[in-house]
From TrEMBL:
The gene is Ift81. This is Intraflagellar transport protein 81 homolog. The lineage of its organism: Eukaryota, Metazoa, Chordata, Craniata, Vertebrata. Residues 3-126 form the IFT81 calponin homology domain. The keyword Membrane does not apply. PANTHER family: INTRAFLAGELLAR TRANSPORT PROTEIN 81 HOMOLOG. Component of the intraflagellar transport (IFT) complex B: together with IFT74, forms a tubulin-binding module that specifically mediates transport of tubulin within the cilium. Binds tubulin via its CH (calponin-homology)-like region. Required for ciliogenesis. Required for proper regulation of SHH signaling. Plays an important role during spermatogenesis by modulating the assembly and elongation of the sperm flagella. InterPro entries: IFT81, IFT81_CH, IFT81_N_sf. One of its GO terms (molecular function) is tubulin binding. Residues 137-253, 309-389, 504-563 form a coiled coil. One of its GO terms (biological process) is cilium assembly. Belongs to the IFT81 family. Keywords: Acetylation, Cell projection, Cilium, Cilium biogenesis/degradation, Coiled coil, Cytoplasm, Cytoskeleton, Differentiation, Phosphoprotein, Spermatogenesis.
Length: 676
């Protein structure tokens, strides 16, 4: 814990914090100061967190810090129950929680800066699945993911460029060198222009040279096209030859589909398998056994150094040289008949090697064909299990996909139509409700006017007339046989209507006057409403200004309250310190020696005396060490020389043993070669 605090204090005293702490002042920090210090470190990692924690609530501070620690992948020590204690300690500013967190942050500040920077662009926003059903939202989300992948690739390229060692100074030097070359070329071109200007018809010659250059470039492009077409023709001829060969093989297979041909194929296969069993596999097995035996012998031998390996390599080279000399001598002693036999032997060995290679190729091709057949069977069985007994072909699958796309577009179109109809239905429903409300209000006003004028029931009579006329129209349509009865009823109704009209004529005149008066009042109401709206707008602007002023005062009040709390906390801290000072003074002045021993001054005095005594002892010990330093160093030097002498003897003894063991291995290897 002390090393941890020492490391934290050293880091905080360096750039960019410069806190000038020591262990005592750092350990005496209060919870609020510790939280502010942790927030400063987090602000150095991510500048968005460089705020004053007194200006925000403790819950907001804890939530902000926990979110950043989650991005930085900080894992607090302990189990799940300790996680709740960690959160509580982070809110209250507990030292057992803050100190390990500060140590972890300061230990890997540069790495965490990089992680916080990348988190700004790589922390993916989770979009609910129901929102992704919208095409616009889905397209924007897809574009967002593509931009995130592009940022990842660019950041990787940037890191690779940083690692590759390309510096801006080197690039600047290259650019300056290229600019110098460019200036030299420009000067050279100007000199050539001056030399050409003295020649007659230089413009025409320049034009001819330009045309020549263009023709040469065209010739090169045509040559490249010709080469490309030749390569395409060559590939096409190869494809044609392969197709013809496949056609011939298929025709031969169809033509030779007889018992004799099948027996021939079976005999060839049996011969091939018998060759593998009798010749190839036993030979490979023997070679593997020999290599395993040699490897076991090598493993059983003691470990060799680089010098032993170099000595063995030199001996191998000498043995190979002797072997080559013996082969040359033997070839010089060969007779002509033996040379013919050697030629046949070489041909036979070449043929046997070719046979082995072709057998291996055939075996690999058969294994590949069987693997592909098993894979095809497996895929076909999976397709049957998923789709049933019928498997769609490529054309049927394309038709099915096109059909699904057309249905999808039709579904989207119908969905838009339904949305439009639903919106229109809502508008019409609202219009119907408004019209019903206006109708009821007008009916109530009309009834009140009729009651005032003494003609109550006029509107009801009019509605009754309208209803009767509607009934009449329905009766006219449905019952054409009862026209006479209906005509009499209409006459009666007309008479009643005439009587009602005659009785209502003066009322209608008064109603016209009232309508004119209503129009005047409506116009006056509109003017008053305009005045009201202007006055309301002025009051609204005044209200918004007052609200802003109130908001500023509330913020100032919150700031003052925060300052008050901070001052109150500092006051409590000072009171506690004053209380401790009083207790210290009381204990120091007390006549009781036990109480006086509890005083901090007495404790520090005892500690000073102990340290002074310890210093005296250490100085005496230092004096003794200085006096005995010279003889001890001489004795140490003698022991080192003796140790080097014994180490040299041990190495010489091991080298003699290794050389004897290597000679024995070489003799056994030579015997094995002679046996083979």
């Amino acid at each position: 814990m002390g090393d941890q605090m020492q490391f934290i204090v050293e880091k905080l005293n360096q750039e960019p914090f410069k806190k000038n702490y020591n262990l005592i002042s750092f350990d005496s920090l209060e919870s609020l100061q510790l939280l502010q210090l942790l927030n400063d470190v987090l602000g150095e990692i991510d500048p968005k967190h460089a705020v004053d924690i007194r200006e925000e609530l403790p819950e907001q501070t804890a939530k902000r810090m926990l979110s950043l620690l989650g991005i930085l992948k900080y894992k607090p020590p302990g189990s799940v129950s300790d996680l709740s204690a960690f959160r509580q300690g982070l809110v209250t500013g507990s030292k057992p929680v803050i100190h390990p967190l500060l140590h972890w942050l300061l230990l890997r500040t540069s790495e965490l800066k990089k992680r916080a920077y990348l988190a700004r662009f790589l922390v993916k926003l989770e979009v609910p699945a129901e929102f992704l059903q919208d095409d616009t939202v889905a397209d924007i989300n897809k574009q967002y993911e593509e931009l995130m992948e592009a940022f990842k690739n660019l950041h990787k390229e940037y890191e690779q460029l940083k690692i590759s060692g390309l510096s801006t100074a080197e690039i600047r030097r290259d650019i300056s060198a290229m600019e110098e070359e460019k200036d030299q070329l420009v000067k050279r071109v100007e000199r050539l222009k001056k030399r050409v200007e003295t020649v007659q018809n230089h413009q025409r010659m320049l034009e001819i040279a330009r045309q020549l250059r263009l023709e040469k470039e065209r010739e090169e492009s045509l040559a490249q096209q010709k080469q490309a077409q030749k390569s395409q023709l060559f590939h096409a001829e190869q494809r044609l030859q392969r197709a013809q060969l496949q056609l011939k093989e298929m025709q031969d297979a169809v033509a030779d589909s007889k018992p004799e041909s099948l027996m021939k194929k079976l005999e060839e296969e049996i011969n091939f398998n018998s060759y593998l069993v009798t010749e190839k596999i036993p030979r490979e097995l023997e070679s593997k056994k020999a290599s395993v035996y040699l490897l076991q012998k090598v493993v059983a031998e003691p470990a060799m150094t680089q010098s032993d390996l170099s000595a063995l390599q030199s001996e191998i080279n000498e043995v190979n040289a002797e072997l080559n000399q013996l082969i040359e001598k033997r070839m010089m002693k060969y007779e002509p008949t033996d040379s013919k036999f050697s030629m046949y032997r070489q041909q036979a060995s070449i043929i046997s090697r070719k046979k082995e290679a072709k057998a291996e190729e055939l075996q690999a091709a058969k294994e590949e064909m069987s693997r592909l057949e098993r894979q095809v069977q497996q895929r076909s069985s999976q397709a049957h299990e998923l789709e049933g007994s019928e498997i769609l072909t490529e054309d049927e699958l394309k038709q099915y996909v096109n059909k699904l796309r057309s249905k999808n577009t039709l579904y989207k179109k119908k969905r838009l139509e339904i949305a439009e109809i639903t919106a229109e239905y809502g508008i019409l429903q609202r219009t119907e409700e408004l019209l019903k409300q206006r109708h009821e209000a007008i009916q109530q006003q009309l009834q009140m006017i009729e009651e005032k004028k003494g003609i109550s029931g006029y509107s009801y009579t009019q509605e009754e007339l309208e209803r009767v006329s509607a009934v009449k129209s329905e009766m006219d349509e449905k019952k054409g046989q009862t026209l006479d009865n209906m005509s009499e009823m209409v006459k009666k109704l007309n008479a009643v209507v005439a009587e009602k009209k005659a009785s209502l004529a003066p009322v209608i005149k008064e109603l016209r006057q009232l309508r004119q008066k209503c129009q005047e009042l409506t116009q006056e109401r509109e003017e008053k409403k305009i005045q009201y709206d202007s006055c309301a707008a002025g009051l609204e602007s005044n209200r918004s200004a007052l609200e802003q002023e109130v908001k500023g005062l509330l913020e100032e009040c919150a700031q003052e309250e925060s300052n008050y709390r901070y001052i109150h906390c500092m006051k409590r801290t000072l009171e506690v310190q004053l209380q401790r000072a009083k207790q210290e003074m009381k204990a120091y002045v007390s006549p009781d020696p036990q109480e006086r021993r509890k005083a901090i001054r007495e404790q520090y005095t005892r500690m000073i005396l102990e340290q002074e005594n310890l210093g005296k002892k250490l100085r005496e010990k230092q004096k003794v060490v200085r006096e005995s330093h010279g003889p001890n160093m001489k004795q140490r030097k003698m022991w080192q020389d003796f140790e080097q002498l014994m180490e040299c003897k041990r190495e010489c003894f091991q080298k003699q043993q290794n050389q004897a063991a290597i000679g024995q291995v070489i003799q056994e290897g030579g015997k094995d070669r002679l046996v083979l």
